Amino acid sequence: MPCEPVQRDGFSITFWEYVEERRDGEPDYVANAESVPSLHAAMRDYPGRLEFLGAAEPASLSASLERLEASPDLISARDLERARREWGFLEPIASSREEFERAFPGVDLQPIHGDSPPANIFAALDGDRYADFELVSLGPVEWDLAALGPELEAAYDRGARRHGLRELDGDVLAFVNAVGALRVIAALELVPKLPVLAEFLNPAVDQWRATPFDVDPPGLAG
Looking at the predicted structure, is the pLDDT value of residue 65 above 90? Predict the structure, then answer.
């Protein structure tokens, strides 16, 4: 089969080689995070055109926050006002490569996985494979470690040193974590259609509510 989507009855279909799964244990997310720099090293020279931080979907996030104004049962007016204020600061940086580079001078951009690669590794009998590349875009490597916490960040840094790549930047991590938190807030609008989402989203919303906004890009200081 050709390595491209096939059109059938108005649908796009892709065909993949079957790979048998290894079922002998639980995922080791620390080890997975330590392996991600090898993925980033392999992706660095990808020659195709990529959207800047397409994985952040800034236009969609803006629209979701706007629609939540009509749903006070999903989010309080106070929380929504805070979310929109934070997004007002973050949105220009998340939407523009030029604004990002002004905010974080010296932080390089490259092709990134876009969807938490430590959690998207398929354990095959003949070795691990990364999966779910539909959100590949151009961005800082920190995006791929967003919201994973200090232990996995430290694991990534160990792998980065081994591959001669830069370690994670704390200021950029604060930025991507803040954007990720607002993506959770925006996802609240889906709860009426998929109520089970609430049990996954609400703990993250509570954590966001209890955490001060601490994004302070060095390029915008003063």
Answer: yes
Q: What is the pLDDT of residues 189-208, one digit of tens each?
A: 999 999 999 999 999 999 99
> To which residue do tokens 């609430």 refer?
198
What is d(CA 101, CA 96) in angstroms, rounded to the nearest whole number?
9
In 3D space, the residue among 36, 5, 22 whose CA is nearest the CA of residue 134 turns out to be: 5
Q: Write down the CATH superfamily of domain 17-215.
A: Aminoglycoside phosphotransferase (APH), C-terminal lobe (3.90.1200.10)
Q: Evaluate the CA torsion angle 199, 115, 122, 8 in order and state its sign.
A: positive
Encode pLDDT of 34-54 as tens digits.
999 999 999 999 999 999 999
Q: The pTM is what?
A: 0.91
Distance CA 141, CA 138 (A): 9
Q: Are 74 and 189 in contact (CB under 8 A)?
A: yes
Q: Where are the domains of the chain?
A: 17-215
Alpha helices in 105-212 (DSSP H): 150-162, 170-187, 197-210
The torsion angles phi and psi of 192, rounded to 5 degrees, stand at -60, -30
Q: Helices marked H in the chain — which ranges?
A: 29-43, 58-67, 77-95, 97-103, 150-162, 170-187, 197-210
